[in-house]
């Protein structure tokens, strides 16, 4: 995953993961909070690698909040 330099010196984001990483990096240390809301999301989690793996179903219905803040260097 790469970024391209534009003529202004800014980097151009090419993927959703780059966008998320860049946003998180800019917000970290600024008291940022990222909130994800799920409505009946289902995830099949395999118990091992391989096509014959059994799966557990995880269900998410609600809110997950991730908070980022700068640490006090004295603590």
Describe this structure in words.
With 75 residues, the protein is α+β, with helices and mostly antiparallel strands. The chain has one domain (12-68). 16% of the residues lie in helices and 44% in strands. The protein has one helix at residues 16-27; strands spanning 4-5, 11-12, 32-46, 55-68. A two-stranded antiparallel sheet has the order 1-2. β3 and β4 form a beta hairpin. The model is unreliable at 1-9 (pLDDT under 50).
Task: Give the helix/strand layout.
Blueprint: E1 4-5, E2 11-12, H1 16-27, E3 32-46, E4 55-68
Antiparallel strand pairs: 1-2, 3-4
Which oligomeric state applies?
Answer: single chain
Q: Beta-sheet strand percentage? A: 35-45%
What distance lies between the first and last C-alpha atoms, to the nearest angstrom? Answer: 36 Å
Helix content: 10-25%
Number of helices: 1
Major β-sheet strand ordering: 1-2
* Rg value: 18 Å
What general form does the structure show? extended
Q: What is the number of independent domains?
A: 1
Would you kindly provide a brief summary of this structure?
By secondary structure, the protein is an alpha+beta fold.
Key terms:
two-stranded antiparallel sheet, 16% helix, disordered N terminus, 75 residues, extended, 44% strand, 1 helix, alpha+beta
């Amino acid at each position: 995953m790469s970024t391209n330099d534009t003529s202004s010196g800014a980097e151009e984001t090419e993927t959703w993961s780059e966008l998320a990483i860049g946003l998180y990096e800019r917000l970290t240390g600024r008291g940022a909070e990222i909130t994800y809301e799920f409505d009946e999301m289902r995830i099949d989690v395999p118990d091992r690698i391989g096509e014959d793996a059994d799966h557990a179903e995880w269900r998410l219905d609600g809110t997950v909040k991730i908070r980022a803040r700068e640490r006090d260097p004295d603590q």
